[in-house]
Amino acid sequence: MKSTINETELLHEQFLFSIKKEKKWVRIYQLLIFILFFGSWEFASRERWIDPLIFSSPTKIWHLLLVKISDGSLFNNLYVTVGETVCGFLLGTLLGTILAAVLWWSPFLSKILDPYLVILNAMPKVALGPILIVALGPGLSSIIAMGTIISVIITTIVVYTSFRGVDPNYMKVLQTFEANRWQIFKESILPASFPTIISTLKVNVGLSWVGVIVGEFLVSSRGLGYMIIYGFQVFNFTLVLLSLLLIAVFATIMYQLVELLEKALIKDEQE
C-alpha cells in the first residue's frame, strides 16, 4: 500500500516537473521570437533592406520613447488613451450584460429586438463616429462612446446566448423551491455564465482599443490615436510605430488583468 502511495507521489511530481519544463521552453521560444523579430527589424533597417523612413527601426523608436518620457508628453497622451479605453471597456461590458439580462428576463422583448441586434452587430460601428461627434461634441464623451458602442452589441448577443444556454434543470430545481425569477437569475443563470462573460471581456479589450483609437483619429488633440495621426501628417513614422507598440503593450496588460480576474473567479468557484 505504501509503495503504491510513493509511486503515485512520484508520478505526480514527474507530471508537475513536465509542466514546469514545458512552461520554461514556451517562455524561451517566446523570448527568441521577440529577439529575432526586433533584431531582424533593426538589421534590415540599417542595411536598408526596408525603407528606414517608413519602417523606422527599434533603436530610433527607443530613443524617441526616451525623449517623450523626458519631456512628459508621453504620459499625458498615454493617460488620456488608457483612461478612455478603460471607461469604454467597462461601460460596453456593463451595458451589454445588463441588456442581455433584460432580454433574458423578457422573452417577448427578446423576440422583438432579436433582428435589430443582428442588424446593429453587422453594422460597422466606427461609421457612427461622425454622428457621435455631432451629437456629443468633439471631446472625451464622444471618444468614450465610440469605445463603448463598438463592444456593447456583441457583448449583449454573446452573454444573452450564454444565459439561454444554461441547463434548464438548474432552473427547474430552483423552481421546486419556489424561487422567483430574480433568484433564479442570481443563483443559477449569472454564475453559470461567468466563463462566457470573462471570454467577452477578453474580446472587449481589443474592441475598446479600436473604438477609442478611431475616436481619437477623428477628434482628439491628445492620446495615442492623436500621436498616430499626427505622425502620419508630419511623416514621422517613428512616432506612429512608437504609438502602435505602446497600444500593443497596454492592450496586453489589460488582457493579462482579465486573465487574472478569470483565474480568481474560477478559483473561488472551485473553492
UniProtKB/TrEMBL annotation:
Keywords: Cell membrane, Membrane, Transmembrane, Transmembrane helix, Transport. Signal peptide: none annotated. PANTHER family: ABC TRANSPORTER PERMEASE, ALKANE SULFONATE ABC TRANSPORTER-RELATED, MEMBRANE SUBUNIT. Its main location: membrane. SUPFAM superfamilies: MetI-like. This is ABC transporter permease. It is a multi-pass membrane protein. Belongs to the binding-protein-dependent transport system permease family. CDD domains: TM_PBP2 (cd06261). It comes from the Bacteria. The chain crosses the membrane at residues 25-44, 78-104, 116-137, 143-163, 235-258. It is found in: Cell membrane. Residues 74-258 form the ABC transmembrane type-1 domain. GO terms for cellular component: plasma membrane.
